[in-house]
From TrEMBL, chains A, B:
Gene: thiE
Origin superkingdom: Bacteria
Pathway it works in: Cofactor biosynthesis; thiamine diphosphate biosynthesis; thiamine phosphate from 4-amino-2-methyl-5-diphosphomethylpyrimidine and 4-methyl-5-(2-phosphoethyl)-thiazole: step 1/1
The family this protein is said to belong to: Belongs to the thiamine-phosphate synthase family.
Keyword terms: Magnesium, Metal-binding, Thiamine biosynthesis, Transferase
InterPro entries reported for this sequence: Aldolase_TIM, ThiamineP_synth_sf, ThiamineP_synth_TenI, TMP_synthase
Taxonomic placement: Bacteria, Thermotogati, Synergistota, Synergistia, Synergistales
EC number: 2.5.1.3
Cofactor: Mg(2+)
Record protein name field: Thiamine-phosphate synthase
One of the GO biological process terms: thiamine biosynthetic process
Protein purpose: Condenses 4-methyl-5-(beta-hydroxyethyl)thiazole monophosphate (THZ-P) and 2-methyl-4-amino-5-hydroxymethyl pyrimidine pyrophosphate (HMP-PP) to form thiamine monophosphate (TMP).
Length: 210, 210
């Protein structure tokens, strides 16, 4: 995938979540978010068993494919590859990038979570395709994470050529700040999938990043 | 890998375990088990983060490779592939066999946990290389599992051409029974790695399966 193309597809990056989704099934979370204008969907669930996670990935991949939305699987590279996802997202405690590169086919996207310029530089050097940068504003979904603030986001963005997606406490009130700091898009969980009107929440955010 | 060769390498299949290993590091568990005659080593840890699991797999792979011992990673196919393990072992709740087959290279071994002849027949049809059959005698490491007994083991073994490894509560007192039921080898955890003399415990078991 060309860089320009990837940048466009990272504008509104919605992460699905079973617990935060107020009982809305993962597939419906995906459908509604896409209906509202999500450009990328990430499936993340560290507690799901491999088989269930694979099946969820297969189903969500079909939904994304139909709508031309980027589909990324968190952490489990094997699930991402076997379910036909467009890419995998790896945190600093997940499989290292250099390991993932060994079995990722040409064109498969690898995103890396970073907090600092050093981590960004390392990820770029090792071949990452995009960065998830944060926790920017603090998020209730990761209560232990320390925030890097808008300054921390800016510092990462100026130190890498990779497209950066801001994550952590992003909402309608701070999307513009994140983009001004250099992010090409924003990643959200609760700001979309915890809302009563998932599609509406996505639509509002999308209008701010387009 | 040829069937005969694989059969020989499944004789004494030792599963490493951080919690059951009485504080002995995983690498030392592997070294001592191999010293005592383990023919296969499996790394299993559902709670380790991907990066730690990958690093442990890399280290244990080197130990196994040096001694010509089969090295299998449990559950995480991505870790197995990127760490250069000989194969992966998948339970009924893990990534399905047909998914794993999509990205497993030629010669990569896939083992499947089965309890019943139906599961064995399905795994054989879908291309499994060996079966882990059990829980045969009941094991404290999986308190919720129901045992299939020696009759259950026999029933699986007569219904498949795949090499079967008996697992669950195997010890010096019942190894012969397991082999007579049709197993080509035995898989053990606590009977080896929870013992004060890991190498000695492996040696005794090995003498019974050779
Ligand atoms: Ni094979």
């Amino acid at each position: 995938m060309k860089l320009l193309d990837l940048k466009d597809r990272l504008k509104l990056y919605v992460i699905l979540d079973r617990r935060l989704g107020r009982g809305v099934p993962l597939c419906d979370q995906a459908r509604l978010a896409i209906q509202g204008g999500a450009t990328a969907i990430q499936l993340r669930d560290k507690r799901m068993q491999g088989r269930d996670f694979y099946r969820a990935a297969l189903a969500i991949k079909e939904i994304c494919k139909e709508k031309g939305v980027l589909f990324i699987v968190n952490d489990r590279l094997d699930v991402a590859l076997t379910a036909g996802a467009d890419g995998v997202h790896l945190g600093q405690e997940d499989l290292p990038l250099e390991a993932a590169e060994k079995i990722a086919p040409e064109g498969f996207i690898i995103g890396i979570s970073v907090r600092t310029p050093d981590q960004a530089i390392e990820a770029e050097r090792k071949g990452a395709d995009y960065l998830g940068v944060g926790d920017v504003f603090g998020t209730s979904s990761k209560p232990d994470a320390k925030t890097i603030g808008i300054e921390g986001l800016k510092e990462v963005c100026v130190n890498t050529k990779l497209p950066c997606v801001a994550i952590g406490g992003i909402g309608v009130h701070n999307v513009k700040q994140a983009l001004q700091a250099g992010a090409v898009g924003v990643a959200v969980i609760s700001a979309v999938i915890s809302q009563k009107d998932i599609a509406g929440a996505a639509r509002t955010l999308r209008s701010l990043v387009s």
